[in-house]
């Protein structure tokens, strides 16, 4: 229709080489008349790059993962990459499915948030040689990671409660097997109590899901124990918010009767009343760091490390009181 060669059409579409103005206009008009769109997959195959990053997360439901994805997207767009998001529900079956899907569509790299990186997936990562960065937790494998120091952060939070005079400290923890929110934050809790010479009362350690509703259910179990703690360390802010709601519903005051400390620093933690004390860090920074270094790996550039830890601090607000 334009009366030019395939190579000239390619130059116009990709703006790869100079083309005479009149010829360019003829090609663009032909594209408009036929509603033509370039085949991105074919073009990327020819270039041996897709400019696509796969992002695998368990869920997006008002959690720190929302900020994580935002950070990934900011950096990806800056470098000309698009992201494709998949929700794995945290299951190995789904992780393997989406990992293989991203390989099939030739994504340039993958960012993965996984509660418990299974050996089957690690093998797939090593065999495929596709650049991948794990976010949210550390890894003993060779997989690069970006995360907060969950053990140290939890230790500091519980130590703060001890410094405020609390010795009856419970924990609403995420289930065993969730490495970061579950096992590592529990390790920090145990370490703080052990160093202070405080015994761990098994009825005061309750496994919980990560939702507000789970926090309500788990807090009910604490209240059914023979004695009541004066402070509760919660593995996530959403659990903490659920715990606070349950205490208020049964007539207990926060922090006068029971102090509550959360983890993650989600926006809602500063809007509820009393404002929730929490371990605060930037999930957006985790996402930005992961995307930036993944793109370096894709391009074959040197990276400063294989494991990056983002900073955290204690946001001490209104949900913790000092005991005399």
Automatic annotation (TrEMBL):
Residue ranges annotated for the HTH lacI-type domain, each copy included: 1-47
Key words, A-Z: DNA-binding, Transcription, Transcription regulation
Organism per entry: Bacillus gobiensis
PANTHER family assigned to the protein according to its UniProt record, in alphabetical order: HTH-TYPE TRANSCRIPTIONAL REGULATOR GALS, LACI-RELATED TRANSCRIPTIONAL REPRESSOR
Pfam families (alphabetical): LacI (PF00356), Peripla_BP_1 (PF00532)
Entry protein name: Transcriptional regulator
Domain of life (superkingdom): Bacteria
The UniProt record lists the keyword Signal: no
GO MF annotation list: DNA-binding transcription factor activity; transcription cis-regulatory region binding
InterPro entries in UniProt: HTH_LacI (IPR000843), Lambda_DNA-bd_dom_sf (IPR010982), Peripla_BP/Lac1_sug-bd_dom (IPR001761), Peripla_BP_I (IPR028082)
